Amino acid sequence: MKTSKFKIIFVALAFLVSSFASVAHGQTETPPKPSEPHVATIPTPVEKTLSNGLRVIVVERKNVPLVTARLMIKSGGEVDPNNLAGAADMTAELLTKGTKTRTATQIAEEMEFLGGAIDSGAAWDFSNVTFRVMSDKLDKAMAIAADSVLNPTFSQEEIDRYKTQTLDELTVNLKEPSVLASYVANRVVFSDEGYGHPLSGTPESLGQIKQQDLIKIHSSYYKPNNSILIIAGDITPSNAFALAEKHFGKWVKAAPAEAKMTTRVGGHISDKLNLDKITVVDLPGSGQAAVFVAKFGIDRSSPLYYQLTVANSILNGYSARLNQEIRIKRGLSYGAGSSLASRRDGGIFTTRAQTKNESAAEVAEIMVHELNRLASESVGDVELTPRKAALTGNFSRELETTGGLVNQISQLALYNLPLSQINSYIQSVQSVNNNGIQSGIKEFYGETTAQIVIVGDAKQFLPDLKTRFPSSQINLIPAAELDLGSAMLRKSK
Amino acid sequence: MLGKMLFIASAIALFTASVLAQTVTPLNFKERTLANGLKVVILQDNSSPTVSVQVWYNVGSKDDPQQKSGFAHLFEHLMFKSTRNMKSEMFDRLTEDVGGENNASTSDDRTEYHEVIPSNYLETLLWAEAERMTNLNVDEQNFKSERDVVKEEYRQSVLANPYGRFYDAIQKRSYAVHPYKRPTIGNIDELNAASLEDVRLFYKTFYRPDGATLVIVGDFEPAQLNAWIDKYFGRIAKPEGTIPRVTLQEPPRTAEQRFVESAPNVPLPGVALTYLAPPSKNADNAALKVAQAILSGGESSRLYQELIYKQQIAQEAAFLIDDRTDKGLLIFYAIAAGGKTPAELEKSILVELKKMQSAPPSAAEMEKAKNGLITEALSERETNLGKGEAIGNAVIYQGDPAEVNNSIEELRKVTAQDVQNVMKKYFTDTNRVVIYYQNETATETTK
User: Fold this and answer.
1) Structure pTM?
2) Which residues in chain B have Cβ-Cβ distances shorter than 8 Å to A169?
């Protein structure tokens, strides 16, 4: 059910547990105090590297008879050749659409008979095949997954079918203000670099991709020594290692192609956001406007990672500043938040909200104000302590499911971070104080400029936008003239 | 199902994870009813130091006041505002700020509120849920700003989503008289018509212990938990009178009805075929759930294989059960592939329907469907929140928490013949509403 869009949007406010008082006359009560906390245990991953270089990581958890497994290639959409945006994603998606011995229908049929579902695709920095099954069916399911990764055929018929479907999906996405704004934000931040294009391609690039391109991506990057297998759930490590050897042991090692890298030179300090131009995509008749502020982010391995993660949590979350100001205080949106997507080679930081068209400029102004306030005002412990608790609470809850465990371990393994960080995450968050937030944010704002991106019915907010941002250049692009394949964002005339 | 912050664009996209299975360990819960009528269901699991607290109220958008659709959902948002002893957003202080979470959702038949918290906060949250069951005290300013939030939620889910008006139309067109015809989210005009006085009246009428079920799952010590429940919920007085209930019955449909809906920015047209379903307690629902898995569960399902993979006429195709305590909906739904029409989709859907009616599914399809349903049920049980929701749904939709375990047995017993029988029984030509959805500037006329 691809059209069901489950958007969980977190937002925020910040007052104190101890500060509530009664408004009513008569008798009042205070809530009972918490008792001593019970101690949580986070499972410890164990790992082994097979002789062909495949790294296998296992986390055993017995409470439910399920296993989630993911085979991850350490290359994703960032390796798309020039003008072939979407090629890496197409390669990964087509893994499950036919092998030397199974048709697409047979793969779906066999996996679903086991009660599971198999998903494949590329993200930024990695491609993957993931499945979840009852633990007694893991052997059979892994056989299907391994066949998909090792022996895909990339038949012309499946390529054509995939292109048609992906074009239709793009057609839908381009009418959704927040999805479109997110594509545009990637372009304004990354220009024509690896993370700049839409991950699944553009209508033009999809047409250019040929079977040979997919075979080349597969033969260049899909190597055991460029891959990680992660297995979490109701299985012992020794059994899991044996299954990994059985299904992936014969995969032949070879030097994977080097992923391209770019670096940014920072080193400046700034106590406010350096705002560059505003990009507006006009989508007449749109029921709301999507408002983003976007800026080049940080590497996942950056020393600023935990400082900026905590800084982001001051802005993002139900009770964090953006939702507090935009939703809770002013009723301007169903939800406002921010995200810090940190990758191998940089990343993207965004704030985002959908609002009625006429409020778009006001929401943009609030976002910029809040971003500046983060650098210019210190964050007191009465605000910081609960935000850190919210962050560590989210992390702990994600680890409750086998799927969540696999997600967290994937991130550490992909970026060559010690797996022990899964056990030290809470401590790392707790150790960030106000000084760390301030120094991290000032360094972050000094590195690169930020841009505002708004997608909506432009005539309803343009005059107000010019009034509120008199010194900013506005790049107005009618949706019909938008070209996501170009760093210029415009179709050439 | 509209919530405080979980935004579900498609009201019909609620894939109710059905519970069935050979290997699912039964949930060993305990239940009791307090003197004031509050039902209590508790399930102990000390494997992690968290606990989920949930309150399920028997009130939903079918109980919206006349000409004020969207009210029950708006009210749900207001339950996070001030009470006699709590400031607005106090629930966030007691959950999010200490590493927990909270949320709520409203659908046609029920409104649920839940928290997941470190277990040392259990007593605090029991106090807080009891507090908002009795002492809600919303002021005019909170009411208006939260109503603005809900209006933005409406714009986001209905107006900005290219298919939002489609899901809205499916609700409106599928019922003749039952209040289910009013979408849960309401609309701007009727939200504007709501007043603080309506809030007071709705609260008094529906938010009472004998209209609610308290579900607690996770890390607790039962004797201590029961003492706290007695202390904080037991002191709530037994209310006088009874809760008014919707008694209107949706009459059987007597002839096919067809509608064409248009909206701006619709990239690809869609079609929905809806049929009135039996109420959620009806025994036929087990077979319908297996039918749903066969038609629509994954890429090997019949609709995916035919409409999306082979014929390539649909970008999306699904069969959904919109379960309700009165007559629900059985919905075939598809979005066209580029260049294809709603008429082509309708024709192919009807061919698949006919196949289900003319022969029972194969043994392999039956096993595949059941394996998929078991795995879904297991996955729901990975968390305390998921287990609590499974219990809450059993209480609301089956009238008995024991159904969380029994329904697994019921699904296991479904035969291929049962599936064919329910497909013949409910999917008649006269029980059909057909809705075409297209871009408002489309020049072609769809029949």
Assistant:
1) 0.92
2) 315
